[in-house]
Automatic annotation (TrEMBL):
Keyword Transferase attributed: yes
EC annotation from Swiss-Prot or TrEMBL: 2.7.7.7
Protein name as it appears in the record: DNA polymerase I
Alphabetized InterPro entries for the sequence: 3'-5'_exonuclease_dom, DNA-dir_DNA_pol_A_CS, DNA-dir_DNA_pol_A_palm_dom, DNA/RNA_pol_sf, DNA_polymerase_A, RNaseH-like_sf, RNaseH_sf
Reaction(s) the record says it catalyses: DNA(n) + a 2'-deoxyribonucleoside 5'-triphosphate = DNA(n+1) + diphosphate
Lineage: Bacteria, Katanobacteria
Species this protein is from: candidate division WWE3 bacterium CG10_big_fil_rev_8_21_14_0_10_32_10
Gene Ontology MF terms: 3'-5' exonuclease activity; DNA binding; DNA-directed DNA polymerase activity
Length: 615
């Protein structure tokens, strides 16, 4: 054990001359335990040779209190029992920065679960949610600068990657600083959470960290061969559509050249925005502002329809081609995406590397879901909320039409259409008045996302004036929804933030009347203020459900665990013998979490057990 002074406290020179103990012996572990066993708050960090806990090595484990900081060189330690006791003590608060990363590394390398977490990165994300970000404002370097007024040496971090030798003095000092600064950050950050009334939502986020860590560690199994076979079929379809498109386009251009094989050359590059604009505007005379999907969907021309079909196949190949299979882990043979629990300003998860959230649940791309499977002897449990966001809107607005639909089991969109058009609601309304129901459905969901008449007009395929009349009719029949949306928009603009039922806040930079873009900026704030309480409350609900599901699985000793989430959907994997009970738990806890937030409107979840990802 090598000492660089015996105690540590926050001093002006803390970043230049940190006080810590470098541990290389089992006796050092015993000292750590004796010094920290009675502490109520400790800090933890790790360093490794890479970012993947399955293919990288844990090199350093840092742990400490306000008075003692230790850097443990992992390769010298055989028995981690005492460290495990400290980490798994639920009465101790553990301060970490980007806790999910350390949680996963420590669990894989040492079979230790860090419990009762406070994550400075997530706390800062809550404090700054929605505000402009021109740099990493939740990273440790920025937090150190903000709360301690100093700089962390960034270059040293790079030296840990693929490094398997003994640690030098600079590396150990850097590692020590990573936990020493956490106490100073915590001391100034936590009062801000209290001041901004974010403690409740912070506790929710901190509790979901281990759930997300475990979810990422489990991963999702994919049948690679079936995936490749389907991609091949999609590529064939894309080529067929491209050939048909070129054939349809050719008469509009004077091109007679042949390629090297004697075939007619391509008329235009189907992926060139400039050439497509020339085609639609100059050659076809359609006067389109762009060739985006939303615009082409409103164009009644066979070439536009073919172009949409081509774009669909092109997107499937670019998003779900061989690049996704390259992410399969060589150790587990599964995909282990990065789920960012504060990935959006509403609190929804974002997903990357690979982004499984972009795999469609409907249409041509839905078949890709079926290649995500449970291995032999196991099952997938998929469950999602039924119209989660509309139910939140019903609850917060208190609208009698929405509440009646959900309490009586009537078809919401048919009931809405009946109200709008003064018709009688019947069980076969959808069959009789499908077009009216579709219009009501578009408005229902459009309002949740804060969409205005222009956006709704594109979706409905009508003029902006017609869309305005439909929206007017909607609010005349359901004024409480309109009142709530107006108040939400006004409140967000005036207060500078919108919030969920739990108190999660999405902050805005207030629009300046002197700004030439004032009207546009104000509209953007008002639109987000309508959407955030609905989508954000839905996100809080899903996270609470995930926490309770994971706790229940563990409490009952089930061979089951969450492996994926997509907004209102949760996917678990369980052994054949535990699948039925796992589904019961997942369904019960999702409904229970919903009832925690919604007091007027009933909440429902639906799903099932299968061998492949369905629903």
């Amino acid at each position: 054990m090598v000492s660089n002074k015996q105690s540590v406290s926050v001093k002006p020179n803390i970043l230049k001359d940190p006080e810590f103990i470098h541990v290389k012996t089992q006796e050092g572990i015993e000292e750590i335990y004796e010094k920290l066993k009675n502490e109520k708050i400790i800090a933890i960090d790790t360093e490794g040779t890479g970012l993947d806990p399955y293919t990288s090595t844990l090199t350093l484990f840092q742990i400490g209190s306000r008075n003692y900081s230790y850097v443990i060189e992992s390769k010298y330690i055989k028995d981690w029992t005492l460290i495990k006791k400290l980490c798994e003590d639920e009465n101790k608060l553990k301060i970490l920065q980007n806790a999910k990363f350390d949680y996963k590394f420590v669990k894989v390398a040492l079979n230790i679960e860090i419990k009762n977490i406070y994550d400075t990165m997530i706390a800062e994300a809550l404090l700054r949610c929605g505000l402009p970000r021109n740099e990493n404002l939740t990273g440790l370097a920025f937090l150190t600068k903000r709360y301690l007024g100093g700089e962390l040496e960034k270059e040293v971090r790079k030296s840990f990657f693929n490094y398997h030798g003994s640690m030098n003095a600079e590396q150990v000092k850097y590692a020590a600083l990573d936990i020493i600064v956490l106490f100073s950050i915590f001391d100034k950050q936590y009062p801000l959470l209290q001041k901004q009334d974010l403690v409740k939502v912070a506790k929710l986020e901190f509790k979901v960290v281990p759930v997300v860590g475990d979810m990422e560690l489990r991963g999702f199994y994919i049948d690679a061969q079936e995936w490749r076979d389907h991609i091949h079929k999609v590529e064939i379809e894309r080529k067929r559509i491209a050939k048909e498109l070129q054939k349809e386009i050719r008469p509009y251009f004077e091109i007679k050249s042949l390629d090297l094989f004697g075939n007619q050359a391509e008329v235009i590059n189907l992926n060139s925005q400039i050439q497509l604009m020339e085609l639609f505007n100059d050659k076809l005379g359609l006067s389109v502002p762009s060739t985006g999907v939303a615009v082409l969907q409103t164009v009644d021309h066979p070439i536009a329809k073919l172009m949409l079909e081509y774009r669909g196949y092109e997107k499937l190949i670019s998003a779900f081609g061989e690049t996704l299979l390259n992410k399969v882990n060589p150790v587990t043979h599964r995909l282990h995406p990065d789920y960012m629990q504060m990935g959006t300003t509403t609190g929804r998860f974002a997903c990357a590397s690979p982004n499984l959230q972009q795999i469609p649940s409907r249409g041509e791309g839905a078949l890709f879901r079926t290649f995500f499977k449970a291995p032999k002897g196991r099952k997938l449990i998929t469950c999602d909320y039924s119209q989660q966001e509309m139910r939140v809107l019903a609850d917060v607005s208190g609208d009698p039409t929405l509440l009646d639909a959900y309490k009586t089991g009537k078809d919401l969109h048919s009931l809405t259409a009946a109200q709008m058009y003064g018709l009688e609601y019947t069980d076969d309304f959808k069959e009789k008045h499908g077009d009216l129901r579709q219009a009501a459905k578009t408005i229902n969901f459009g309002l949740v996302y804060g969409r205005g008449p222009s956006s709704l007009a594109v979706q409905l395929g009508v003029s902006v004036d017609e869309a305005k009349n439909l929206v007017k009719k909607y609010f005349e029949k359901m004024p409480q929804i309109g009142n709530w949306l107006d108040n939400a928009a006004k409140g967000g603009a005036e207060k500078g933030y919108a919030e969920t039922l739990l108190g999660r806040k999405r902050y805005f930079t207030k629009a300046d009347p002197a700004d030439p873009n004032y009207t546009r900026e104000l509209s953007s704030i008002e639109r987000a203020s309508k959407n955030m309480p609905i989508q954000g409350t839905s996100a809080d609900m899903t996270k609470l459900a995930m926490i309770h599901i994971a706790e229940k699985y563990k409490k009952e000793g089930l061979d089951a665990g969450i492996i994926h989430t997509l907004h209102d959907e949760i996917v678990s994997e369980a052994s054949d013998k535990d699948a039925e009970r796992a589904y019961e738990i997942q369904h019960e806890e999702m409904v229970s979490a919903g009832s925690t937030f919604l007091k007027k409107c009933p909440i429902e979840a639906e799903g099932g057990i299968s061998q492949q990802w369905e629903h």
